[in-house]
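Annotators were shown the component list below and the corresponding predicted structure, then asked to write short factual statements about the assembly.
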Amino acid sequence: MHYQRTIGLIALALLAASCASTSNESSYRARAVELMQADFRTRGIASVDRLKQDETQALCSQYRDQVPPEIAERIRTSNLAAVKYPADGKFLGDWKQGEKIAQTGRGLQFTDKPGTVNGGNCYACHRLSPQELSYGTIGPSLYNYGKIRGYGPEVQKYTYAKVYNSQAFVACSLMPRFGHNGILTEEQIKHVVALLLDPESPVNQ
Amino acid sequence: MTMKRLATALLLGGLAAGAGLAGAQDSTVEEIEKYREALAEGNPAELWEARGEELWRQKRGPKNASLEQCDLGLGPGVVKGAYAQLPRYFADTDKVEDLESRLVTCMMTLQGFTREEALKNRFGGGGKRSDIEALVAYVTSQSRGMPMNVSTRHPKEREAYEIGREIFYYRAGPHDFACATCHGKDNQRIRLQDLPNLTKTADARRAYTTWPAYRVSQGELRTFQWRLYDCFRQQRFPELEFASEASIALTMFLAKNANGGVYNAPAIKR
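Structure shown to annotators:
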């Protein structure tokens, strides 16, 4: 009886301690958000609205991108549900255009003019065509992407969705959600998919 | 700064201008190699350091006063070693300040400048020179060779650190980027550029102790505040206000993570 009560009290104390640390962290987070809203200013095309987080961004920030399984599932599900597939049912554009989109990181910075055509900047993080030696390593190598996975319609659809919204498959992926957040247009994403999945693309040579 | 070092720095400026013209005849690689050799001999940051020291001693502003009585944390007028302990809490302003914000405070209180005047040329370039960049170059040079020793003992220092950490992990904007996206893992690169993992001691030390830096690509000396401002530009965020509380909090997080690293700036970077 006495022993049980002690255990109960310890459990209670532990619970209180863990709540306290969580509420501390969330109060720092709230203060950080307040400060950021005060200390960033709209410049050019980059308005302070950009500081507002959607649910995915807020959860990934809170968990430092290491979300528990049930929250990961929630993020994947809501992002997958938001994928808009092309109305014409076609996923493959022109790989040559895709290569250009993969090379440029232009767009959406406060120094960019309105109307700038955005790039995908794929090479910043991925290896793609073997001719391009200046590639980053934040994401995996995509060399031989189609050769390895096949060129069929299911792979095409998955690849389109992955570029459109990476978090439909990997919660808190570091990769931008290019379609979901309007960085690339449907047509541009098709070109990028072609770079990955056209058998003629240098990626698959 | 000795005359010889000054001469080297001036020669370097001339070489940089000449390299563009000579590029048509010689191979680019050869020119870059020559340029790198020249860089190793003298860092143009010395020009900013020298101008900053002059500015520090010069009587300026409505109050016609120098900055020689400015308290950077180790007492009025003590410059040696001050930067290695910044940011820190200052009782007179009841705030945590980094070097840039503290210089602004001193320019206002000692010299009588308004905040707007003090911040007017916060970034040099296009023919206009920045007093802040020069002053930062001078003050930081006086901590060279000293270990970083930033305190989080005061509750406001602790708070700044914790808020800075939250900002570091804050994902937002069209690209969902946080500082941590590029600087939260080991051995990552963007294109061929290595990215320090600023949450790990060794990388945090190496990165933080080499700012400010003379940027060869810009021909300017850039402060740590500039580094943050430009990172957020690439993050597709709106513009971070210079010397703002948010910027100081983030600096606190990064500086504290670099504690123990031997300070070695102003440096030179591409």
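Statements collected:
1. Chain A touches chain B at residues 25, 28-29, 31-33, 35-36, 38-43, 46-48, 50-53, 56-57, 60-61, 64-65, 108-111, 123-125, 134-138, 174, 176-177, 181-183 (CB under 8 Å).
2. Chain A is about 45% helix and 0% strand.
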